[in-house]
């Protein structure tokens, strides 16, 4: 093989959407390696980029091809021979300028290649087979080294056939647009395209991969197969570099399943469509799951907010009940104070009555004394006959007894008044302390009630915000459902288009076989 790598760069590869004809579709999420190969003996140059054992760019540069700079970091060109439009996005403007310079130099120094047709089918087939084998041998290791540097020990070694592409190297998958152009123009497609896409010969085939090399399983968990054997239900696994799938047994009905290295197989077009469909379904399921989780979170948040509001309402009710109890206690205390004040007034009135009675008694006694003095004066002038004698002494003793009794009653009334005053002062002081404590407690409850009202307003505002976000999420989910329906419609259109291309490809292959048989005859 005389092809030599002359330039290598990295960029994001895009293909033009075959349905809309206006949108770009990215081949991979990460940047891929893009290389230029030159064949000095044939004076040809081509651009190659590999992704998952598939040539996403395999374009011969011919004289007159130009690179159009759509922006400062994006360039595009058309492969006239394959009827494919490629686009590459670079990280900087300098990388795009360097790639454009290499592209122009290659277009200026290459020769015009013949268009694929009936007369040149054999030569074109040989060129395509050689170019695809070189891409699989040279570009694929570079991509694997950059994207999977840690798979050298996890994956088994490639068989010796991969090092000899001239003998049994696998053919990379060609762009479907080449077959579409060949069928439209009524020309024969290269024979190597049919060989490389052997798994796509039947549009109704449900297999989604084809074996590139022979693989012998080492234990019961691994699946052994032969080269070019079809694989079904191929899926990825958690084990890096390994896939899981099944093959048909010799009876053509039952299947055997197991693990095998991903590098030993090639995913077919049917698998790409299934992968797109499964990707859409998984994206839809993921969005639905996220929406459900978000809705559950919102419901939980609303539930928590409702519980908090209920707790706040309970606290408010408790506070109101406590306030009512305190008001009742204040009323009872006020009633007790009024009763005590009434008792004090009654005691004061009784004391006043007692004083008045004492005063009246003293006046009466004075009057009696005066009368007695008058009587005793007259008796001294005309002393009555007193058989017993001692009349004045008896009056003095009675007077002393009365005065003593009056003094005792006055002292008792003063003592009762002092005791009543002391008890009244104690009651008043106790009531004043209770009133102050009740007033402080009432102020504290009013402040707590205001704070709870403010927090309730804040929770109401947050609940409104949550409801608004929920409505926005529901709207976004409905839009995503609508987008998924649009994607499904586009996917069905792509599948119908692929089926038509496959049918045309089969017709071209039949025509090619007839032409070959005619040439042999």
From TrEMBL:
Pfam families: WH1 (PF00568). Residues 282-373, 403-448, 484-514 form a coiled coil. One of its GO terms (biological process) is G protein-coupled glutamate receptor signaling pathway. Residues 1-110 form the WH1 domain. Residues 146-203, 375-398 are annotated as: Disordered. Its main location: cytoplasm. Residues 146-201 have a biased composition (Low complexity). One of its GO terms (cellular component) is cytoplasm. CDD domains: EVH1_Homer_Vesl, SH3. It is found in: Cytoplasm; Postsynaptic density. GO terms for molecular function: G protein-coupled glutamate receptor binding. InterPro entries: Homer, Homer_EVH1, PH-like_dom_sf, SH3-like_dom_sf, SH3_domain, WH1/EVH1_dom. SMART domains: SH3, WH1. Residues 204-270 form the SH3 domain. Keywords: Coiled coil, Cytoplasm, SH3 domain, Synapse. Gene3D superfamilies: Pleckstrin-homology domain (PH domain)/Phosphotyrosine-binding domain (PTB), SH3 Domains. Belongs to the Homer family. This is WH1 domain-containing protein.
